[in-house]
Amino acid sequence: MVKRETFKDPLVRARVSRVRFPKMCPVCGKETTHTNKVVATQKKTQIFSLGRMTPYDRRRMGIPSPEVRTFHVYVCEDHCLEDGGIMRLRAASTFYASLAFCMLVFAIMLIGSDISLGRPLTVWTGLFFVFVGATMALAYVAYRPYGLEAAFKIIGFDYDLQHVWLKLQNSLYKDAMIGINEMDAELVSWIVRG
Ligand SMILES: [Zn+2]
């Protein structure tokens, strides 16, 4: 089913093979020469098709299959965070959260017996709650969309993968993007999802 979707804040549609990125940070707008990889994986990517297309149709029509695309975007030092780093942080956070959950079961039993026996709570109980608090703080940091992820979002590609659609939060950055890609980028306020 084809669905038309409009955006209040226009998206940028740019030619994949020609697109250039301004030398400024998409998050804060600071001038910069650092680059950061932004990877569009198949999972993240929606293809805007002109109707239903199977991989067989694609091959028959000579349309390239969706694949991983990497864009090198200039990002300032503060907002430069590799995808690998954030993924490791998220994995660690998940590990500690499950550990905290297991400990919670024991802690409730121990605290329950301490209270029923009228014993004062031990220092370990306090430490345990510090640990749970730290785990929750880590999960909050790891799972909130980090700067670049929120400011530079790849919405998807055209059906033939010639154009990429980007959602850019910073309007200065968006203007700069349109400016340096005059022939290869445009603002679009609606898309058709197939
Ligand atoms: Zn920045």
Low-confidence stretches: none
CA radius of gyration is 24 Å
E-strand count = 7
Number of domains: 2
Tally of individual helices = 5
Q: What is the average of the pLDDT values?
A: 79
What features would you highlight for this structure?
194 residues, alpha+beta, two-stranded antiparallel ribbon, 5 helices, binds zinc ion
Characterization of the model:
The chain is an alpha+beta fold and 194 residues long. It folds into 2 domains: 3-81 and 154-193, no CATH class; 83-143. 40% of the residues lie in helices and 26% in strands. It is built from 5 helices and 7 strands. The strands form 2 sheets. It has a 5-stranded mixed sheet with strand order 3-5-6-1-7. A hairpin with a 4-residue loop joins strand 5 and strand 6. Helix 2 (83-116) runs antiparallel to helix 3 (123-143). The radius of gyration is 24 Å and the shape is elongated. The mean pLDDT is 79. It binds zinc ion (ZN). Zinc ion is lined by residues 25, 27-28, 30, 76, 78-79.
Compact description:
The chain has 194 residues and is of the alpha+beta class.
